[in-house]
């Protein structure tokens, strides 16, 4: 397969490897494109600013697969009123035990000693749909002195509910965050909380914690509190987010990059002895991404630190493993490694593997195939 040096990106190369041609890439992009639920689309930041300046609507539907934004917006509505006003004008309901008559009675009641009454219904994704539909008459003619907030942590929601809220209020969509979007999101979060991080920190956190934004923000907050320093380093992440200094996926990645067989086997043995701390499904994406980036680097005409850093978005001081891997693994071997990683991923999900095989067996086999 010939790779165009000036047009290949990490994301497109991932698709090339998985799919093999541009027709499938276009199909993939079409499938991933989702129609917006609301024609009056509003961003998270804009919605937060509007709540802060008391520019509110009588109805809100917070819906989508990513719970982080829904929870954060919900917190803002919970603290929308002053402490004295909340005692009389804040009502919280939960989907599982939701009584629609009680919700409607609270929403229709006029506020006491306040301009607004806030009524929040959480976790409606587990509510009885028949109870949810009983809210429809109110959604069509809401109390203008109440703010009814419906929180649905799912992409599934009655179209009638969406349509009704769209007419009189605001529908906020909280879509799933994809893996390749997380590092940039973490960069933005660091900026938001006035904290700096050295190159590679956001990617490392994303590799370790995946797409769980709530967990990511919690861990970053812990780092900020415990370290009390202006710049977070990769060493800080390794120390404070549960990584062993000598036995972690990043050390294994480097051992493979430099073909350090002794070190790689020592780390594998440690992983096998601690399977709960080192699940294979958590490690495979990190190795996959690394070897895809090595392929990209191998195609660069200029392999200086600066050009490698620009091509794959890392610090110029962290390019040595890529340069080493390019010198050790020829292109056909690198594609073989990608195939081995895909095979290990399938086997870890029970496809084409003996039921007696453990994750440790799969990891040992994978590392052997990469090194030899």
Which class of secondary structure composition applies to the elements? alpha/beta
- Strands, total number: 7
Distance between the termini: 23 Å
Overall morphology: elongated
- Beta-strand proportion: 5-15%
Percent in helix: 55-70%
CATH class of the largest domain: Alpha Beta
Question: Which architecture of the largest domain per CATH?
Answer: 3-Layer(aba) Sandwich
CATH H-level superfamily title of the largest domain: P-loop containing nucleotide triphosphate hydrolases
Number of helices: 20
Element order: H for helix, E for strand:
HHHEHHEHEHHEHEHEHHEHHHHHHHH
Give the strand order of the largest sheet, numbering strands 1, 2, ... along the chain: 2-3-4-1-5
Outline the low-pLDDT stretches: 1-11, 15-35
Number of structural domains: 4
> Biggest β-sheet: count, sense, barrel?
5 strands, parallel
Mean model confidence by pLDDT = 86
Q: Indicate the radius of gyration in whole angstroms.
A: 25 Å
- The CATH topology of the largest domain turns out to be Rossmann fold
């Amino acid at each position: 397969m010939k790779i165009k040096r000036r047009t290949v990106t990490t994301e497109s190369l991932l698709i090339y490897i998985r799919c093999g041609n541009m027709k499938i890439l276009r199909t993939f992009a079409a499938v991933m494109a989702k129609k917006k639920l609301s024609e009056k689309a509003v961003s998270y930041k804009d919605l937060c600013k509007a709540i802060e300046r008391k520019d509110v609507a009588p109805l809100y539907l917070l819906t989508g697969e990513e719970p982080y934004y829904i929870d954060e917006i919900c917190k803002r509505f919970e603290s929308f009123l002053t402490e004295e006003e909340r005692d009389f004008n804040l009502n919280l309901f939960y989907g599982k035990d939701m009584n629609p008559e009680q919700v409607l009675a609270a929403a229709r009641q006029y506020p006491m000693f306040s301009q607004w009454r806030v009524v929040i219904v959480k976790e409606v994704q587990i509510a009885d749909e028949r109870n949810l539909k009983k809210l429809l008459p109110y959604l069509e003619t809401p109390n203008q002195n109440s703010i009814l907030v419906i929180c649905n942590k799912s992409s599934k929601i009655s179209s009638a509910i969406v349509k009704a809220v769209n007419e009189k209020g605001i529908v906020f969509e909280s879509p799933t965050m994809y893996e390749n979007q997380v590092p940039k999101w973490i960069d933005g979060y660091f900026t938001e909380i006035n904290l700096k991080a050295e190159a590679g920190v956001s990617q490392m956190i994303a590799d370790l914690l995946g797409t769980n934004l709530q967990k990511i923000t919690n861990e970053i907050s812990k780092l900020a509190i415990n370290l009390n320093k202006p710049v977070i380093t990769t060493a800080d992440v390794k120390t404070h987010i549960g990584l062993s200094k000598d036995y972690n996926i990043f050390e294994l990645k480097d051992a493979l990059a430099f073909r350090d067989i002794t070190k790689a086997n020592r780390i594998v043995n440690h992983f096998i002895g601690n399977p709960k701390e080192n699940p294979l499904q958590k490690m495979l994406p990190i190795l996959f991404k690394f070897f895809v980036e090595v392929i990209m680097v191998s195609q660069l005409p200029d392999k200086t630190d600066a050009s490698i850093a620009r091509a794959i978005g890392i610090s110029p001081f962290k390019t040595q493993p890529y340069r080493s891997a390019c010198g050790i693994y020829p292109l056909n071997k690198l594609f073989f490694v990608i195939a081995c990683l895909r095979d290990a991923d399938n086997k870890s999900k029970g496809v084409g593997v003996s039921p007696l095989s453990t994750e440790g067996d799969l990891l040992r086999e994978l590392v052997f195939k990469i090194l030899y």
